[in-house]
Amino acid sequence: MARWLAVGLAVLAVLLSASVRAQDGSLEWMVSLQGYTSSSPAISADGGAIYLGVSTATAGRIVAVNPAGRVLWSVTRADWVDSTPAVGPDGTIYVGSHDGRLYALQPSNGAIRWSYNAGGFISSSPAIGSDGTLYFGSGGFRLHAVAPDGRERWTFPVGDWIESSPAVAVDGTVYVGCRDGSLYAVSREGRERWRFRTGGRIDGSPAIGADGTLYFGSTDQRMYAVAPDGSKRWDYFTNGAIFASPVLGADGSVYFASDDTRFYALAPEDGRLRWRVDLNSSSASTAAVRGDGAIIVAADDGVVRALQPADGGLLWRFDTRAAPGDYIESSVLVAPDGSLYLGSLDGRLYKLRGNGSPLSTLSAWPGFRRDAGRTGRAVHVRDGGARLLNLASRAEVASGGVLIAGFVVEGRAPRAYLVRGAGPALAPFGVAGFLPDPFLTVYSGATPLRTNDDWGQGGPGPSVVDTAEAVGAFPFPPESRDAALVLGLGAGLYTAHLRDAEGRGGVALFEAYDALGGDPANRLVNLSLRGAVGQGEGLLIPGFVVGGDAPARVLVRAAGPALAAFGVAGPLSRPQIAIYQGDRLLRVNRGWAEGGVAHDVRVAAEAAGAFPWPERSADAALLLLLEPGPYTLQVSGLDGAVGEALAEVYLLR
Q1: What is the per-residue pLDDT across 209-229, written as a single tens digit (0 to 9) for each?
Q2: How far apart are CA 416 and CA 489, in angstroms?
Q3: CATH number, domain 383-533
Q4: Which helix (H) or strand (E) holds 480?
Q5: CATH class of the domain defined by 12-352
């Protein structure tokens, strides 16, 4: 049960002087809430409103505050609101109250769209399923599933009341802890899949790893890792009850606070201690992991700390200077612009300055309820069937030059791949100045595997025509001088060199397709293309297709300056990378160290086996969560820069 201190304060924004130097972890403003809060702030999708619950001795409220510290609206309820709001895809705010109701509020003014009577107090925070279903626990010894319009879908009985907030896996399974000491796995239809018993109550919310592993603490003083089938992977004994929910670092490290006054970092694979630091205070607050790797955690002593991911060293601390007992049970919200928000039992909402770093985009579960909208829903599972199906790039091949593409295959047994170099076949699409006679060579490491000059003279083996039709590639005209090969490739690194047979220049299209034949576990995990980048139409424009039935975590990079270390002459000095889905621009990056996510990018590159870049180099990169479908990269030069660039796509596991 949460710890309370009733404080009646008028709604007041206290803004510090604009002359205060902007510094990571320094106070920007604080707002008195006319009550106290252990609810954690959530933020609207546009970043224009921060929502949280407030309690007083006799009532509760849901409050919306804008990023400048102005209260936008406040809705009073008959009892405490210590549930954390969750923001739906249409902006609706869902939050529970000790009056036994779950509320759906309109974001513009807080008007109640509907309420649902759970038959028992609600301190559990709602999770939002992929279909909009709301899952939350109640004091009536039940887990509830409610439709987005407020209709009850089902309830599931448990052995005690639920303070834990549910977490929803990619497959729709709902995981929730209970004060009866069990973690329950419940299907989206409301049927029990399994339960895992601990030696104490479970008040925190489980975190879901990229491979589906569940991490959660118990008052039996242990942190648990449990597989999606309910079997225990490991447990780690602290020396105090664990009320805080765990979060995960970019590398999967499990971070959490214990009532033994320490903060822990454990290895996700076996629970080994990586480091621990003494906070000199107990904490029920859940940490947040930023894209720069910093771990932000608050504690019962009223202090917010930023810790280094390598060893837990202190980066900075902010002291609310609260009175004894004015704990920070609220979990820090890291906004998309890097600002930090948190509530306290001292009755205030605090906004601290950040350094521009958002929540980690690489971590599977970087904060309380996973994201800034507090949805409590996982969006990615490792080895969930995602694969790279196709790489295609149109580029200018200089006279005597070569277009070089690379791809990495993982798997045990060979699988068929179609590799093509188009020149004359581009004429019907209105391409002038095409490469007259493409010549294609595929290498395994430094060893040539196969060559082809004219695709119709490819020799024995799988049919190029049938394979192209099967994968949806456009047909080559009969007798054209384009090049194509169908190869059975096992795990390894491959490169393809495309040039003109007589050394002439022109526009060419390089393509590599997963031809779908052979070992289904064999897949493309990396695609790369090296070519010249000019101005105007001289961009490097590779396209790729994400396959599978679940979102994929993808790292895309555009290397220019980093190529100099490999002896590449004339590398692109200032690359810019942009990614499109059709005509829609998704993201742009002009330097991988910008945006406060350099740590995420570095960890992702190491995990993918990509070559390292110098610190703060001018190379560009993006971390993305992509739905299945086709995407296009555009690599261009900033400030008139031209030169050689390497575009890379990595499927992160």
Answers
A1: 999 999 999 999 999 999 999
A2: 6
A3: 2.60.120.380
A4: none
A5: mainly beta
